[in-house]
Amino acid sequence: MAKGNKSDKAEKTGKTNLHPTKNPISENIRGAMVELLQVHLATAVDITYQTKQAHWNVKGMNFIAVHKLFDELHELTEGYVDTIAERLTAIGGQAHGTVQAAVENSILEPYPLDLVKSEDHLKRLTDSYAAWSAAVEKGIEEASEAGDPLTEDLLTAVGRGLDKSIYFMESHFQS
């Protein structure tokens, strides 16, 4: 649970505060989906800047190709940040999209700051994308079980994009 983001009562009960909305999903489902989406928002912010970290610091014989790939992946993940935050707020949540919130709520391991070689960046980013992809699959199941097809669909689209990104990165070091 993020520090200072919820009232004392919500903090103690684990209940998410929701903004009033005419969204037809029940308050209980919306609360559960907001909590689910907060984790994915934090992870999306984290992976966006892990990817940018790799983009800024990559070196090697295939520099320009990998540098451009990381920039394209960064733009793609930035889109996930916006899409997730907008869904979260559409169902009455308050998006926690700051770097500090990402640090507290991301499922990813911190990205090493000393990587240089393109293959090292590719492998490490692939690990992060794969970890998030696995979490997205669980989120899809959770949204389905909760009866929120729109959140399920959003996460399915994110998962498809993550799988494609993993394929693009792995193709550099698979034989």
UniProtKB/TrEMBL annotation:
<dbReference type="InterPro" id="IPR023188">
    <property type="entry name" value="DPS_DNA-bd_CS"/>
</dbReference>
<comment type="similarity">
    <text>Belongs to the Dps family.</text>
</comment>
<dbReference type="InterPro" id="IPR012347">
    <property type="entry name" value="Ferritin-like"/>
</dbReference>
<dbReference type="InterPro" id="IPR008331">
    <property type="entry name" value="Ferritin_DPS_dom"/>
</dbReference>
<feature type="domain" description="Ferritin/DPS">
    <location>
        <begin position="35"/>
        <end position="174"/>
    </location>
</feature>
<dbReference type="Pfam" id="PF00210">
    <property type="entry name" value="Ferritin"/>
</dbReference>
<dbReference type="InterPro" id="IPR002177">
    <property type="entry name" value="DPS_DNA-bd"/>
</dbReference>
<protein>
    <submittedName>
        <fullName>DNA starvation/stationary phase protection protein Dps</fullName>
    </submittedName>
</protein>
<feature type="compositionally biased region" description="Basic and acidic residues">
    <location>
        <begin position="1"/>
        <end position="14"/>
    </location>
</feature>
<dbReference type="InterPro" id="IPR009078">
    <property type="entry name" value="Ferritin-like_SF"/>
</dbReference>
<feature type="region of interest" description="Disordered">
    <location>
        <begin position="1"/>
        <end position="25"/>
    </location>
</feature>
<feature type="compositionally biased region" description="Polar residues">
    <location>
        <begin position="15"/>
        <end position="25"/>
    </location>
</feature>
<dbReference type="GO" id="GO:0016722">
    <property type="term" value="F:oxidoreductase activity, acting on metal ions"/>
</dbReference>
<dbReference type="GO" id="GO:0008199">
    <property type="term" value="F:ferric iron binding"/>
</dbReference>
